[in-house]
Amino acid sequence: MQHAIDKATSGDLVWVAKGIYYPTKLLPSKTTSRYKSFQMKNGVKVYGGFAGGEKHIEGRDVKNNVSILSGNFGQIGELSDNAYHVVSCTGPLSASTILDGFTIMHGNANGNGNEGYGGGIAIGPSAAIKIQNCLIYWNNAKLGGGGIYSINSSSCIKDCNINNNNSGNGGGIFLSNSVDTVTRCHILSNSGELGANIYASFFHGVIFTNKIASGNVNATVGIGYKGGGIYLSGASGMASISSNLILSNHSWFGAGIYLYSVESLIENNLIKDNNSKESGAGIYVYNIATTSFSSLINNTIISNRNTATIPGTGAGIYHNKGVVRVKNNIVSKNYIDAPGKIQDFGSEDTSNIHDYGYNHIQVSGYVWKEKGNVTGIPENASLEYKDVVLPVNGFITSVAEPGIGSFYIDKGDTASVNGQPVPKKIGRPFQDWTSGYGGFRIHFPNYRSWYS
Q1: In this structure, which CATH number among 1.10.760, 3.40.50, 2.160.20, 1.10.1740 belongs to the domain 2-371?
Q2: What is the CA 264 to chain-centroid distance, rounded?
Q3: pTM confidence score
Q4: Residue ranges per structural domain of the chain
């Protein structure tokens, strides 16, 4: 495989058949076997998942024709002689450089310096490579990036499964001083002290979208270990975490997301069933610089648990310092083990929380409740759908009562179908609607509306 990559020129495609492949080429100026690594070449596109007789790339089957890149070329079952990096992507590499359709496993970056980062894939510097449709698992790194390590680069990681990797920081992915995008990836059951799933620091802008970060557990139990799902710190650019499922992660602080001195936009995420031992089971915000801010928009933060026994530590969201802007969030049914039990939002710096309204926060926490009210419910909410198929048996509307957070059925005041008014009835007022192709509109005075 390496011979084919070396012979290729920019724009060429290398097709790799199913099987297990081991690195054979030493990194520049290195002499010992552990420095052998698959080395990408600028502009070359390398695809796995072929049986061997295909005429078109569309004919490959990545699931059944598994192309494995393994760092376990020494004694089987012995990690100490495995490759430091299974794949190396040293720049300059343009965005036309692609690695697609491989299983990458058994890298062991257990050294110091560069040998301590990127057990599965080491990216950078100056690499804009695309890593796509890959399964990256059972890799280890002593310092950072058990699965993937990227430094001074602008890589795109897309449609990958990054599972069961381990590292000191960033068990799944470690991003440093980079502008990276992580899209539609499943990142599960990784371990690390800071950012068991993803660790990003001193970056110039990073985007996480349509990603699942689940079941990540901090490797070492001890105070100071943060960000079971995602840990972000020290950025000079905006971090965007959008449309992700961040589920069932564990940490002392910020089990779902931990933000440290970073400007961030957190929007359209489901952050659920995360568990912290101290503060912020869902999200922990700590922005030292007063100019840094985090925006939380359209998130659902529910059923997170904080096992701390100190009131005010925020099971859903914990805000320590810096400016936080909150809008259109549902923060509910988050629990702490301290007296009071439910505590969705806790803060030590309430003067820097900007409530932009339309938040449904069930119980805001002791610190917050003493200083003000975070719950913002619109006075008149309306819901309108066009060009939909209406159900034969009608449907039920559900709303939240301001200040209580309880959900009520059929509180709609007025409604119309295809522009025609529908009378309000007791019980299920819109049950008599017949199926059809059209639209409907419901008006809720003094309530926020949901439809399902």
Answers
A1: 2.160.20
A2: 13
A3: 0.78
A4: 2-371, 380-451
